[in-house]
């Protein structure tokens, strides 16, 4: 499996773990300095985001992936994933969104780790 394929699989794992609320699984995919930028512009550390997932602030029910594009540049990479997601966040009801995640990654000890993600719609 090539590096691009490995990174594509990490993106799919990321969504599976979010749906399962697998906090430790998600943490294993993130670098120590990971941060998430929500569509609203709010920036959250990994700990803040995972706490919100664990306490029900963020609830993800399904994700169907329309497109995953990976670029590898040595020990750094970028990924743009487009997925149709069903979720309920910040106390709202279930909704369907076409979410685009723009991720950066870094290779640490031979393993790819997400360093940031920026959410938007497509």
What is the molecular shape? Answer: globular
Radius of gyration: 14 Å
How much of the polypeptide forms β-strand, as a percent range? Answer: over 45%
Termini separation? 29 Å
The domain count comes to: 1
Overall pLDDT, averaged?
Answer: 96
Order of helices and strands: HHEEHEEEE
Q: CATH class, anyone?
A: Alpha Beta
Largest sheet: 6 strands, mixed
Number of continuous helical runs: 3
Helical percentage? 25-40%
Question: Based on helices, strands and strand pairing, what is the structural class?
Answer: alpha+beta
Report the CATH architecture. Answer: Roll
Number of strands: 6
User: If strands are numbered along the chain, what order do they take across the biggest sheet?
Assistant: 2-1-6-5-4-3
CATH fold descriptor: Nuclear Transport Factor 2, Chain: A
Uncertain residue ranges? none
Task: Report on this structure.
The protein is α+β, with helices and mostly antiparallel strands and 122 residues long. The protein has a single domain, classed as Nuclear Transport Factor 2, Chain: A, CATH 3.10.450. It is built from 3 helices and 6 strands, in the order ααββαββββ. Strands 2-1-6-5-4-3 form a 6-stranded mixed beta sheet. Strand 3 and strand 4 form a beta hairpin. It is globular and about 40 Å long. It comes from Acetitomaculum ruminis DSM 5522. This is DUF4440 domain-containing protein. InterPro entries: DUF4440, NTF2-like_dom_sf.
């Amino acid at each position: 499996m090539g590096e691009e394929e490995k990174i594509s699989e990490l993106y799919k794992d990321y969504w599976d773990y979010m749906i399962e609320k697998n906090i430790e699984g998600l943490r294993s995919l993130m670098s120590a300095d990971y941060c998430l930028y929500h569509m609203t512009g709010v920036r959250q550390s990994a700990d803040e985001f995972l706490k919100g997932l664990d306490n029900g602030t963020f609830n993800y029910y399904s994700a169907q992936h329309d497109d995953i594009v990976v670029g590898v540049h040595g020990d750094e990479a970028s990924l743009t994933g487009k997925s149709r997601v069903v979720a309920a966040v910040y106390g709202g009801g279930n909704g369907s969104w076409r979410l685009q995640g723009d991720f950066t990654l870094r290779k640490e000890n031979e393993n790819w780790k997400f360093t940031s993600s920026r959410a938007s719609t497509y």
